[in-house]
Amino acid sequence: MITVKFVGGAKKSFSTEQLLLDKSSISIQELLDLLIELKPIDTPALDTKNMLIAINGSDSSAMEGKSTKIKNNDIVSIIPVIHGGSSKKLTFEVLKKSIQIIEIKDQKIFDVKFLDNLRKKYPKIQLQAVSSNFVLNNNHLKKILSISFESEKNNILISNKLETDILMRFALTGQISDAIKNAGIKPKKSFILIGIGNKKILNSLYKELLPMSVNLYSKNNDLFLKKHFKITKKQLDSVYSKNPLEDILVEKAVILL
Known about the structure:
The chain has two domains: 2-80, Beta-grasp domain (Ubiquitin-like (UB roll)), CATH 3.10.20.30; 82-254, PF0523-like (2-Layer Sandwich). By secondary structure, the protein is of the alpha+beta class. The longest helix is centred in the middle third of the chain and has 16 residues, at 138-153. The model has no long low-confidence stretch (mean pLDDT 85). The protein has helices spanning 10-14, 28-38, 112-121, 138-153, 162-171, 176-183, 199-209, 222-228, 233-237, 244-254; strands at 2-6, 18-21, 26-27, 51-55, 58-59, 69-70, 75-80, 82-86, 89-94, 97-104, 126-131, 191-196, 213-214.
């Protein structure tokens, strides 16, 4: 027996929060095919391309992706990722959290005080900044955030604050000081600003920072990430997926628990 839990918009596709399926030892792809068959005709479509799938709280993309086998008594969570925005802003939702991503161009004035001042000015939203070098792409960013959100939900954060947990998972370290030193804000370095909270407040923040922003992920960080985390060609070749570097980074972030 497998329990499938639907989160957010996925509930509308099935008009229920969960299904019990008399199945075991099936892959995630096989489960998705089955769910599409079971979905009522008169409900919204299930967007299988924009969702995170967790097995017992762990992101399946850090396992074997859609080939991951689901065992008897496993709990599978279907979490839609709703996204939009422009080339300078990415907005999406995970676990009912509204998230906004902006990349801020390098300037001498930026340091940790800049982030502290923003937090004081916008106390009703959560803010974290991550060096642009440590973000591979949109999928990498969304998956890391989903790991932190799931950890918060299950009370297993590796720090006492969600914002710190996020930074530590991008830096792939259990030490807060190392995370700040390596992946935090530095003068003359671009960074990714992550905002979590009320959409209207996030939009006000975006308007304020727009003159300082650049197009998201304006450079390829593959080489930096491979070198910094000492990821070898042998390791990459051993991962059978379309995005081995992304999968390795996410897997390492998961096992920080």
